[in-house]
Amino acid sequence: MVHEITNVMAEKEPLGPLGGITPLQQMLASGTGALFTSLFVTPLDVVKIRLQAQRTPFSKGRCFLYCNGLMDHVYVCQNGTSCTPWYRTRTPTHFSGTLDAFVKIIRHEGIKALWSGLPPTLVMAVPATVIYFTCYDQLRDFLRFGMGYQGAHIPLIAGAVSRLGAVTVISPLELIRTKMQSRQLTYGELRVCIQSSVAQDGWLSLWRGWGPTVLRDVPFSALYWFNYELVKQRLSTAASAEEATFTISFISGAISGTVAAVLTLPFDVVKTHRQIELGEMQTVRGRSRKRRSSTWRLMRRIQAESGTRGLFAGFLPRVIKVAPACAIMISTYEFGKTFFQSMNREEKKINPQSI
After folding, report:
1. What share of the chain is helix, strand, coil (3-state, %, to 5)?
2. Which residues form the Solcar repeats (predicted)?
3. Span 217-228, mean pLDDT?
4. Count H helices, E strands: the chain?
5. What is the pTM for the complete model shown?
6. DSSP run (H or E) holding 240
7. Fold of 2-45+118-287+294-336
């Protein structure tokens, strides 16, 4: 099946500005890509968290970051080592390394433990990814075919704007989820909490943490799509392929993801600090009024304490996580779009009026 789809990608005729697929089909393709990415990356982060907890046990009220390959999520430890309802350290042995952790977690807790916490994070991660990727394709094609603009800057603009939209839509949900996890609120208590927050600080309080998220994710997306389209075109030309194959998309996604991750790493460090700060401020009632550090003040503080190297902390772990996540996501997405293009061609041959 993969070879058939790949061959179609190389032999297909132009199908118009949207690539011969509908927005709904684009959503299905991006949603499938999000699921595959999460299934691959989540075990890596579960093991990372367990290793961190082994070195420095989580104390009550402290936060840790969890990533399913698509989004970062703040989790607040309620009862020390147990942290969240889904995160429970039941493995009694000591981990000597990553591989050892994989083996012992599977042996003592079962293979399902490697995907702990995946369902609740997918509730937000998949819709955000669907919005992001679908908007990117739609906006890119609108600029190229609808407005007649050409040039390498089109993916850069489309990537930045689509990411900005996705972050803005999801940001209030992220804050609400953080509040629910930090205080174990019921939906009724949550409604009162949100109303109180809005009454005190206005509607903009629902977008708390939006700034540092935008500072990292928007430049990352702009750089990612710019490099992805560029690398994909170069590799396709070198392979004498009219359209990118699955392998070309995979390699292009990994390279562009790595470049974007490295260049935006300082903003990622700041965003991590702000996320942890926001989560801990919501842990105990009354602490939410504590003065929060501004993004630039926090960046200057990190540089003063640890130097420029401090702004690039976590370089290797971020690249190791981002590169395969980007590669899996984009190649699965492109594969899905190609599958629907092939399906639409066959349907058009059978019923020319259907497309």
Report:
1. 75, 5, 25
2. 21-142, 150-234, 244-339
3. 93
4. 11, 2
5. 0.75
6. none
7. Mitochondrial carrier fold (1.50.40)
